[in-house]
Amino acid sequence: MWAVYRKELRSYFYSPIAYVLIGLFILLTSIFFFLGNLASRVADFSGIVATMGFILVFIIPVLTMRILAEDRKNGTEVLLLTSPSRLSGIVIGKFLAAFTVFLILTVLTFVYPVIIVLLGGKITAQLVGSYIGFILLGASFISVGVFASSITENQVVAVIVGFVSLLVMWIIDSLAGFIGGFAGKVLSWFSLLSRYEDFNKGILSLSPIVYYISFTAVFIFITIQMIEKRRWSQG
Hints:
This protein has helices spanning 2-14, 17-38, 46-64, 69-74, 77-81, 87-108, 111-118, 125-150, 155-179, 181-189, 192-200, 206-233. By secondary structure, the chain is an all-alpha fold. The chain has one domain. α2 (17-38) packs parallel to α6 (87-108) and α8 packs parallel to α12. The model has no long low-confidence stretch (mean pLDDT 86).
């Protein structure tokens, strides 16, 4: 697993993809930070963290598009599947590599709260909760992106599938309110965003943390099963 992790992490930084995504993310968050905090003289950064969560809907599919699709397209998936590493270790290693890039991206945004503190603001429980929720949300999104990359060898298709899936997950709470009734309650239960709102209010409870971790684990498991099924079908 760790050999796969190191290989994938290096591949991100040997190509422009990590630098472009990190640069784009920092550019967008800097604009929101300037408009939402500096220009308006507001010390609360947690609202910007929530906006950062929406930006991930666009960033994560690009981050994960090649992680499994490229191996399948190049024919190296067969080599990975016949290597001494377990399939679960391969998938988890690739997931952790993408998650590490995401964490680097997240750490770079810590400069904004620091600026707020230097200007006389404070680090609040609400801000800490927002970041914890953001990291858990990112892990969930990455697991969906890895799954999208596992079902096709075309990276463009992986981006589209990942983006549409994450967008649906983002608006599912609104859909639940529109539908109403039992179906609406079911959709609301699956909502990632509704649980993130608790973090954004500074409310830290075990239930949403377990949900995010379970959600991530389920999609990693489905990805493993998808590849396993393909291996057996190909003999």
